[in-house]
Design brief:
This protein has helices at 3-6, 20-42, 44-51, 55-76, 83-106, 113-144. It is mainly alpha-helical and 145 residues long.
Amino acid sequence: MTCAALAPSAAVAPAPDAARFLRLVLRVDSVSTAVMGVVLVAAAVPLGSATGMPVVFCVAFGIFQIGGAASLALVAGYPVIPPALARTVVAVNSLCAVGCAVTAFAGFVPLNGFGVVFLLIGALIVAVYTALQYTGLRRMTSATA
C-alpha cells in the first residue's frame, strides 16, 4: 500500500455552497436589522420626537426588528438552508416593506415629514433585501435541481 492510498483525499474539493449568496444577504440583513432595532429601542425618545412616532411604537418596532434579526441569523446559520424557510423570509420581508410604506401614508401613526421619509427609506431597504434574497433563493434552488 502506498502513502498516497493512506492520505486523505486532497483531490476531492468540498462541494460549493449553493446558498452562499443567499446566506451572505441573510447575514447582512440580520446585522442591519439588529442595528436598527437597537437604535429604535435605545433612542426611542429622540427618534420619536424627530419622526413623530410615539415612543411606544419605536420600542415595539425595535423589539420586532431585533426578533426578526435573530430569525434571519438562525436561517443563515443552517448548514443547508431549507427552501421553505428562504421563501418565508422573502414573503415576510415583502410584507414588511409594504407595511412600512402603508404606515408612512395611512395615518395610524402620527408621522411628520421626516417620519414619512424615514419609513419610506426603510421600505426601500427592505425591498432591496427582499429582491436579493429572492435572487439567492433562485440560485440556490436551481443549483440543487
